[in-house]
Specification:
The structure holds two protein chains of two kinds. By secondary structure, chain A is mainly α. Chain A folds into two domains: 34 residues; 41 residues, no CATH class. Helices cover 41% and strands 0% of the residues of chain A. Chain A starts with a helix and ends in a 21-residue tail after the last helix. By secondary structure, chain B is an alpha+beta fold. Chain B has two domains: 195 residues, no CATH class; 176 residues, no CATH class. In chain B, strands 5, 6, 7, 8, 9, 10 and 11 form a seven-stranded mixed sheet that branches. In chain B, strands 1, 2, 4, 13 and 14 form a five-stranded antiparallel sheet that branches. The model of chain B has no long low-confidence stretch (mean pLDDT 83). The chains are: A mainly alpha, B alpha+beta. Chains A and B meet through helix 1, helix 2 and helix 3 of A and helix 2, strand 1, strand 6, helix 5 and helix 8 of B.
Chain lengths: 94, 385
């Protein structure tokens, strides 16, 4: 019964959010041109993950350990797994 | 039917005879469910909220990339883009960051075009002169500056510039505006030290969503040093960031699942001497193997469903009522200005079903398997051990 009440409350709250808050939030995003959530402020690529350089997490030294904990939450782009990402060094053919 | 109810009654009585063990099991089981459900509920709610809000973001954001890094974009690029078919409008965005050494926090500075008044999500108004600003709730709280107060920000020339606060963004917008300071676009460009005739990037509005990729390709062809970012890429970014399969959330999630697997494994690997004796006595007084198995299924279901309900209640209260205090340290990282997490309580029935399936079925199976083994053995042998 408690769980049922919580689920009913969640449904009501989502409807309230959709009718009361969402239009105002969309208006804010549209008019200020916001592109990201203001969640992590520790680095540029964490504050604006969608606007970050493609290799932002490794901008200081390629392959360097991640500086910030938020970087562990943001996964690498899916495109990185779509092909070989390793650089190889080999002798030029004679 | 009556027989099944009698067996259920017997199962409940059997669990009541061992209150410490039964409740101990329920507490551990419910805690595991609560951890798994908290991760899933929180990530799903933030993901859904981001998807619903950011749908209003510009269809295209155009950056200029020099040496692999984001650089200011000349406003002349915008004039050229404005002439492309399908483009409704281009707006220059002036934004960047400033570090506040007093509070050790990084603040996002954003220019708001003049004439953008009447926003519902702001208490007060947006700035109209160079000495005014509107701030997010996090900044207002950190500086103790409400409407009519003052904040001092360090500009590109390392000079502290005072601004009068004329508006504070309302709490429901905290996820978008917590660390934000908006000033007029002209003032933002000066404050951030952007060279004349440049902006941070360009927001492009496109009438037909099907044409976004075509327009992006045309921009890229016309300006090879540009990087168009589509809205769908922005939405995909947040879908990936808050997917339960990503990063640290997966670590927490898998930790809880492993704990549950150990619990189920412990049950599956054997019965206690007392439980074996109970099965032996039941068989000796004439119970069928099927009856014993049904009894054990009822016991398993009672424990599982009670724990599942308690775990889900705890997870919903933890995430949606208390603001996920146990998960915030994981999410927060080193952010000084982290918004209070109060996502709209999106609950996906499919997700609840998945949690139930992942926990109840393995547990009941783990309860029944060793009981079946004991039930098919000779009662005399079982009772004597």
């Amino acid at each position: 019964m408690v769980l049922g009440s919580l689920l009913a409350w969640a449904e009501i709250e989502v409807v309230r959010w959709r009718t009361e808050d969402l239009p105002g939030l969309r208006c804010l995003v549209g008019r200020l041109g916001l592109s990201d959530l203001a969640m992590w402020t520790e680095a540029r690529y964490a504050r604006h993950p969608s606007q970050a350089d493609l290799f932002a997490a490794f901008q200081d030294v390629p392959g360097s350990p991640e500086h910030f904990p938020a970087g562990s939450i943001v996964p690498p782009p899916a495109t990185l797994s779509n092909g070989p990402t390793q650089l190889g060094i080999s002798e030029p053919p004679p | 039917m009556r027989r099944h109810l009698k067996l259920l009654d017997f199962a409940l009585a059997s669990l009541r005879r061992r209150p410490l063990k039964s409740w101990g099991l329920v507490v551990v089981y419910a805690f595991t469910v609560a951890v798994v459900a908290s991760v899933l509920l929180l990530t799903r709610a933030i993901r859904e909220e981001a998807a619903q809000i950011l749908v209003a973001a510009p269809e295209l954001t155009v950056q200029r990339v020099v040496g692999g890094r984001h650089e200011p974009i000349p406003l002349s690029y915008g004039d050229a883009i404005r002439g492309l078919p399908g483009v409704m409008g281009v707006e220059a965005r002036f934004w960047g960051y400033t570090y506040d050494a007093v509070t050790d926090s990084t603040i996002t500075v954003m220019g708001a075009s003049e004439g953008l008044q009447g926003l519902e999500m702001i208490e007060g108004r947006l700035p109209t002169t160079a000495t005014e600003c509107a701030v997010g709730a996090g900044v207002a709280e950190m500086w103790g500056a409400g409407t009519g107060g003052e904040v001092i920000l360090v500009d590109a020339e390392s000079t502290g510039v005072p601004y009068e606060v004329v508006g504070v963004f309302r709490a429901p917008s905290e996820m978008l505006t917590n660390d934000l300071v908006t000033m007029t676009s002209v003032e933002a460009a000066v404050f951030l030290g952007l060279p004349d005739g440049t902006a941070t990037d360009l927001a492009v509005r496109i009438a037909n969503p099907n044409e976004v990729d075509t327009v992006a390709a045309k921009i890229k062809r016309a300006h090879p040093d540009s990087r168009p970012i589509t809205r769908s890429e922005v939405l995909r970014t947040y879908d990936a960031v808050f997917h339960w399969r990503s990063g640290m959330m997966l670590a927490v999630f898998s930790g809880a699942l492993v704990a549950f697997a150990i619990l189920a494994w412990d049950k599956a690997t054997g019965l206690s001497a007392e439980e074996r004796r109970e099965i032996g006595i039941l068989k000796a007084i004439g119970w069928d193997t099927a009856d014993v198995l049904e009894l054990k299924v009822w016991e398993g279901l009672t424990i599982s469903l009670t724990s599942l309900m308690l775990g889900l209640i705890a997870a919903m209260v933890h995430v949606f009522v208390l603001g996920a205090p146990l998960l915030v340290p994981v999410l927060r990282g080193w952010s000084v200005l982290f918004p209070e997490l109060r996502p709209a309580p999106f609950v996906d029935p499919y997700m609840l079903f998945a949690i139930a399936f992942l926990t109840v079925v393995p547990y009941v199976a783990a309860t029944v398997a060793p009981s079946w083994k004991a039930a098919i053995t000779d009662p005399d042998e079982v009772v004597r051990g």
